[in-house]
Every structure is written in C-alpha cells, then in structure tokens.
C-alpha cells in the first residue's frame, strides 16, 4: 500500500476591505461621480492665463511703455469714433465725418490741454508724478471712454434714427457722451490720485483735492465746448 502524500490547505487571500469605521474610497462606491475629462480641468486654467482683450486694454502695468500707451490711446479714439458714426446716422452724408471726428476730438483736447495743466499744478504741490505715469493714466482713461462709447454705439444709432424729435435724439446722444466721458475722467483721477503721497500735510492734501476737482470741471466744460462746436446733432459743425 502506497502512502498518500499529505497535502497542505493554503487559505486563499482575503479580499481587500476597508478598516472598520474607515470611509470607503470614492472610486469604489457605486454612486461615485464619473471623473472629469482630462481637458475639463485644464481649460479654466488656460483661460485664466490668457486675459480678454478688454482686460488687457485696461490693465495697469508696473512699468509704462510708450508704444503700448500710444496704441491704447489710439484704440480708445477709434472706438469713440464708432459712437460718432452712430450719431451721424440721423442725418447721413457728410454728417458721418463730422460726428466721427468730433466725438474723439474732445478726448484729444482734454488729453493735450487739460492733463498737462493738471500735471503742472500737482507738481507744484510736490506730487511724485513723472510723464510716463501721466501718459499711462491718460491712455487708460481714453481706452475706458472708448470702450463705453463703442458699446453704446449700436443703441445710439438705433435711437437717433428712429426718434421723431431732433431734440430728444440730441439729448440721448449727449447722455451717452456724458456717461463715457465721466468714466474716463474717473479712471484718470483714480490713477493719478493713487500716485500722490498721503503723508503730506493738510495744505498739500487740500491742494491735491482742489487740483483734481478743478480738472474734472475743466474737462467737462472743454468736452462740451468741443462737442457743441463739431457735432451737427448738437447744433455744431455748420449744421
């Protein structure tokens, strides 16, 4: 009789299980949401790294760049011309040219006459302003005004064409100009005001405030004068 070789019972390895009381991993649960696509998480990060065109146009830069500031000012003037074309749609013809040139003419007048005068007054109070910073603030203000006026251009064109009263059309056109100009002046004063020193005495700080407020009044009066003389919708331009 042959002896039977003994055999060993090797227990099978137990299935992996979580410790008592430990939460089951989300990947093992039946109700776990499907993982997001590979590109879904990277897409918002990619968009965050590339700001929009308007954000780049209005962005503050740590160092002023003459070429960039002049380009930004030119874009603001071009967008403001679109609003002028919208106002000229009421009369048509050569009125397009008068309005397209007249609307940004006020911005150029304020930038060439008002801003240098404001800078000179602020330097009398020992304001730490340099020409590059002033140019950058002026360019941002022009870009902001142009964006507002360019955005209002379609609505202005529709209104001035369909309005039955010339006075109403002129009033609404002037209202759009006032909104765009007010935003531009606000951006300019905010940028210049941020560069002023706050550790000065009461007299110096009062001089800062008076100079900024005086510039705002002068800018409004100058812009209204230019628009009244050049825009046929407002009675100017040889209308």
Tell me what you see in this structure.
By secondary structure, this protein is mostly helical. The chain has a domain at 69-234. It is 67% helix and 0% strand. The chain has seven helices and no strands. The protein is globular and about 55 Å long.
Q: Strand portion, in percent? A: under 5%
Q: Cα-atom Rg, whole angstroms?
A: 32 Å
Task: Report the strand count.
Answer: 0
- Computed structural class: mainly alpha
Number of helices: 7
Largest sheet: none
End-to-end Cα distance, whole Å, is: 131 Å
Shape: globular
Determine the oligomeric state from the structure: single chain
Compact description:
By secondary structure, the chain is mostly helical. The protein has helices at residues 38-48, 53-58, 66-88, 95-124, 131-162, 166-195, 202-230.
Key traits:
239 residues; mainly alpha; 7 helices; 0% strand; globular
Q: SSE layout and pairings?
A:
Layout: H1 38-48, H2 53-58, H3 66-88, H4 95-124, H5 131-162, H6 166-195, H7 202-230
Helix pairs in contact: 3-4, 3-5, 4-5, 4-7, 5-6, 6-7
